[in-house]
Amino acid sequence: MREIVICGEALVDVVADRAPVSTGRLAALQPALGGGPFNVAVTLGRLGSAVSLCTAVSTDTYGEAIVAALQASGVGTGLVQRRDEPTSLALATIGTDGAAHYSFYVEGTADRLVEEPGAFPQTVAAVCFGTLSLVLEPGASVYESVMRRCHDEGRLVVVDPNIRPAVIDDHDAYRRRFASWMDAVDIVKLSDEDADWLSAGTAGTGPSDWLAAGVTAVITTAGADGVTVTTTEAVVTSPAPNVQVSDTIGAGDSVMGGVLRHLENLGALSPAAVAELGVQQWQATADFAGQVAAITVSRPGADPPWAGELRSDYVDNQQNPYPDLRSTRLSPE
Question: Which of 8, 17, 130, 142 sits at a 20 to 30 Å CA gap from 37?
């Protein structure tokens, strides 16, 4: 069986209730497990992939809950390092449009102190990196080393930067560092806001630069405008399904999980196989990923679907099973 490893943090999202605070009272807080890489791994586990999370997790109460949640969703924990430092926290406030805005508490926490995991088994076909773990040292340098090693070993390398400007001390330095990875990356998945941020400043680069550096596909999410796949040969767009949005926590992570699951279904978990994908296959991949994300945003928190929640014809048919979704939009109600 071909396996997927997700590298990066697992943390606790503390979600602030949207109740008005004009009375001077603080909104109620609801803790939920999260972190971009954690959400991607959970998505893949629920969709039926053989997936593991490579990270460091605290031995505190939150850390125990993280490990239990991974295992309950079918995610392997053999690459999870346990540490005594506390779990990272992300305070998420939800706007009237359902979009989440974050502030982070990550000093001296377990996940940023991840250690070199060593070589992955030969069965690992694809490795995905993302979010805070690509920024916060010393873990960021550990993951960068793993990324380059996996590229040299011929594994599929995927990056989702999931930009959080508040935790990036030197914006242009990070932009330069991100650009330096592109010769070791096969797929970049990011939001349109991430793409705009990375292309800004004196060190900015964008999708065309990344493709020129050797990236095979850039996958961009844009809320109601759905998912776009850009390669050197074509641009494919899949508008988002029309659902009532609860919040957008984990939406992009669900897209990432959906993309990797669909590539697995296509037998395309290798750099060569991804490079050979045609327009119809990328269209079907974008459609599938959008359907996964649509279920996630329809309910509170990062709660991605299980395989059984997707229409069976969508899971089984790889040749654009939902052409009707092209004329719909994802819009808050």
Answer: 17
- What residues contact residue 33 under an 8 Å CB cut-off, 6+ apart? 10, 11, 12, 13, 62, 65, 66, 69, 302
Side-chain-side CA neighbours of residue 252 (13 Å): 25
Q: What is the pLDDT of residue 94?
A: 67
pLDDT reading at 80 higher than 90:
yes
Contact (Cβ atoms closer than 8 angstroms) between residue 90 and residue 14: yes
Distance CA 82, CA 69 (A): 15
- Whether the CA torsion 155, 160, 164, 168 is positive or negative: it is positive
pLDDT at 323: 33
pLDDT digits (tens, 9 = 90+) for 169-206: 999 999 999 999 999 999 999 999 999 999 999 999 99
Neighbours of 320 (CB within 10 A): 16
Least confident of 19-23, 46-50, 63-67, 313-317: 313-317
CA–CA distance, 243 with 149 (Å, rounded to integer): 41
pTM score: 0.90
Top pLDDT among 32 and 61 is at 61
For residue 11, the cross-strand partners are: 34
Q: Across all residues in the chain, what is the average pLDDT?
A: 89
Q: State the CB neighbour count (10 A cutoff) for residue 145.
A: 11
In contact, 70 and 54? CB cutoff 8 Å? no
